[in-house]
Write a structure and sequence with these properties.
Oligomer: single chain
Structural class: mainly alpha
Radius of gyration: 16 Å
Distance between the termini: 37 Å
Shape: elongated
Largest sheet: none
Amino acid sequence: MVATAKEVGLFDEAIRLAKQTPCDPKTLTRAARDFADVRPEFAIEAGRAGQVRDRIRALVASETDGERFVTRTLSRTLGL
């Protein structure tokens, strides 16, 4: 249902459905990738919080300069 809503241009409906019903993560990842340039707000929503958290975790883990301000600030939230 999510893919169908997306394909007919009902992006808000597709996101609403993705949040309320089980959805294949591959479908959401593909939607995020395919629409990153043309519908970034949809791509962000489709990408889901878990993927964003993983990306932030990787970026923070690679922080090596200075006082590691970002790491200290986000460490509790990110489980570092």
